[in-house]
């Protein structure tokens, strides 16, 4: 059986529906989603998770209504000012992953400042995927290798990916009831355990996270091997 995952990735889905059900503008759901992310990061710290990666804004989200996109950008700027000092105090290293072209100079500067301010923290690495897409990630890695004249191999691609600074996620959670990964960590999630929750992201709390962790603890992660091979491997390690 698996223990607490080293790396959890989350598709934070359901913010808009949460707001709509309350007759609120969609951006209100995103604001509440920031509160949920704060709770989740704190819970990961308390449970010994080393890396948390969240899907905050996909490269496809630019096609959403202009008012919602504008509200998300304003919310990001506000969150950088308000949340980063709290995360820094908790020992969280913040890392933004995604294409920064198309973002305003103010936003790009804020991302860089947040990363620099928290670079020395080691309790939890929080990767925030913003203007990110899994296909973009693979393409940019291949382009980087081609530019350097390096052969495009699995090992080389892995080292050129946007999340090369952390191990691949052990557990990928999607909230909101949908059962797909929507262009998130296509390369890195090859052997991730998938967990789908009907809970809308703003309602996803410590108890919901614990349910996901309990489900993960029951999984047998074989990585292409058989159960018998795993038992033999574990037994030999126990004797060593």
Brief account:
This protein has eight helices and six strands.
Order of helices and strands: EHHEHEHEHHEEHH
CATH architecture: 3-Layer(aba) Sandwich
Radius of gyration: 19 Å
CATH-defined fold name: Undecaprenyl pyrophosphate synthetase
Helix content: 40-55%
Strand order of the largest sheet: 3-4-2-1-5-6
Question: Are there runs of 5+ residues with pLDDT below 50, and where?
Answer: none
| Biggest sheet features | 6 strands, parallel
Average residue-wise pLDDT: 90
CATH homology superfamily name:
Decaprenyl diphosphate synthase-like
The helix tally amounts to 8
The gross shape turns out to be: globular
- Number of self-contained structural domains: 1
Q: In the CATH hierarchy, what is the class?
A: Alpha Beta
Explained architecture:
- The protein is an alpha/beta fold and 240 residues long.
- The protein has a single domain, classed as Decaprenyl diphosphate synthase-like (Undecaprenyl pyrophosphate synthetase, 3-Layer(aba) Sandwich).
- 48% of the residues lie in helices and 15% in strands.
- It is built from 8 helices and 6 strands.
- Strands 3-4-2-1-5-6 form a 6-stranded parallel beta sheet, sandwiched between helices.
- It is globular, with a radius of gyration of 19 Å.
């Amino acid at each position: 059986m698996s223990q607490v995952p080293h790396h959890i990735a989350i598709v934070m889905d359901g913010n808009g529906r949460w707001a709509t059900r309350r007759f609120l503008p969609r951006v209100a759901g995103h604001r509440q989603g920031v509160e949920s992310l704060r709770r989740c990061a704190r819970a990961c710290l308390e449970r010994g998770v080393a890396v948390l990666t969240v899907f905050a804004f996909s490269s496809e989200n630019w096609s959403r209504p202009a008012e919602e996109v504008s509200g998300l950008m304003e919310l990001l700027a506000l969150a950088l000012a308000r949340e980063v000092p709290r995360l820094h105090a908790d020992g969280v290293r913040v890392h933004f992953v995604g294409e920064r072209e198309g973002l305003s100079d103010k936003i790009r500067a804020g991302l860089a400042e947040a990363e620099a301010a928290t670079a020395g923290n080691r309790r939890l690495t929080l990767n925030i995927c913003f203007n990110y897409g899994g296909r973009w990630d693979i393409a940019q890695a291949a382009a980087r290798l081609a530019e350097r004249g390096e052969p495009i191999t699995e090992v080389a691609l892995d080292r050129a990916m946007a999340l090369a600074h952390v191990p691949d996620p052990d557990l990928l959670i999607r909230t909101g009831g949908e059962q797909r990964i929507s262009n998130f960590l296509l390369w890195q999630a090859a052997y991730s355990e998938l967990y789908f929750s009907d809970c809308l992201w703003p309602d996803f709390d410590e108890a919901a996270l614990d349910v996901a962790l309990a489900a993960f603890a029951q999984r047998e992660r074989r990585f292409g091997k058989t159960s018998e091979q795993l038992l033999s491997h574990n037994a030999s390690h126990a004797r060593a």
